[in-house]
Amino acid sequence: MDTTIEIFGHKLASGLMNASGVHCMTLEELDQLADSQAGAFITKTATLAPRQGNEEPRYFDTPLGSINSMGLPNLGIDYYLDYQIDRQRRFPEELHFLSVAGMNYAENLAILKKVQASEYTGMTEFNLSCPNLPGKPQIAYDFELTEQLLTEVFGFFTKPLGVKLPPYFDLAHFDDMATILNKFPLAYVNSINSIGNGLYIDVEQEEVVIRPKGGFGGIGGEYVKPTALANVRAFAQRLKPEIKIIGTGGILTGKDVFEYFLCGASLVQIGTQLHQEGPKAFERINQELLAIMNAKGYQTIEEFRGKLKEK
Ligand code: ERO
Asked: 117-144 burial, b if ≥16 CB within 10 A, otherwise e?
């Protein structure tokens, strides 16, 4: 019995990764992920130029999760591209992930052209769902814009590309977005980014807990798991089988991971819990998953992946 996963031509020791944004800003953090029990890891979403991000405080741990309005602080695409190209040379057996997003339409194209022109051959995650950029709506809530952008991107981008999506809340939206995504040779979709623009209140102080945008921020952790599972399940039922699904949102335990695999995820990403517990979370969670598989008599993840039963 084991938790290995074969995906994108690589064999991973587990299906667990960090969610972009958590523990992946600096070389030191990335090296710690590389040394952890994560099956793969992804870099912080990068823009063309380095960014400071929003004013602090911009991240707050709540009793059931987190709220953040980081505002895309990152060290710039060259930093993360160089890091992953170096790892690719030293560890060709690993599966590498780079996360990117532009601050506007032209920058989205420019950053992907840069990745295309580089010697990087790993996965690129195109973040269409940052909820925390003042004045900039999340791209993937604009269906026409998403289709136009992906059409232009696939005119030149030939490396494996995934998209990070925001949560959807209506079955008609799953239908419409899946119809668009199925037109493209996507490697995967990652559902979900944080639930955008929630509000957490400190009752004692009668005030919000983060400074940017009047306290509005992306919600992660336990609050979001049912929404995230529904997004994974809905896309698994609608996307062509070549498009794999990465499930993200509210994973605290091996049981949560088991639920994501039942819904059809091929990999899962952990954000809030990794922030709270550090990279040792991967080993604990994977051990918990193994214990569940053992109790249920499953030898491999493939035996139950996508097999959620209806009543
Ligand atoms: O504010 C951020 O840097 C951020 N926070 C999220 O919850 N999701 C994101 O995608 C993101 C920036 C890309």
From this structure: ebebebbbbbbbbbbbbeeeebbbbeee
Which CATH number is 5-53+72-194+221-303's, of 3.20.20.70, 3.40.1650.10, 3.80.10.10, 3.40.640.10?
Answer: 3.20.20.70
Hey, which of 58, 80, 194 would you mutate to test ligand 1's pocket, going by the most ligand atoms within 8 Å of its Cβ?
Answer: 194
Q: How many A from CA of 131 to the centre of ligand 1?
A: 6
Give residue 157 CA to ligand 1 midpoint distance, Å.
24
**What is the CA(45)–ligand 1 centre distance, in A?**
8
Map residue 277 onto helix, strand or coil: helix
Residue entry with tokens 């995906």: 7
The finding on whether 101 has its CB within 6 A of some atom of ligand 1 is yes
Nearest in space to 260 (alpha carbons), one of 301, 311, 310: 301
Lookup: tokens for 212? 């940017």
- DSSP helix/strand/coil, 124: strand
CA dihedral sign, ordered 52, 81, 192, 60: negative
- CA separation, residue 238 to residues 181, 184, 191, 235, 243 (Å): 10, 14, 14, 5, 10
Confirm whether 130 is a catalytic residue: yes
Q: How many helices (H) and strands (E) does the chain have?
A: 9, 16
pTM of the predicted model as reported, rounded to 2 decimal places:
0.99
What is the per-residue pLDDT across 41-64, written as a single tens digit (0 to 9) for each?
999 999 999 999 999 999 999 999
Q: Which atom of ligand 1 is nearest to the CA of 196?
A: 7
pLDDT digits 0-9 by tens, 210-243 = 999 999 999 999 999 999 999 999 999 999 999 9
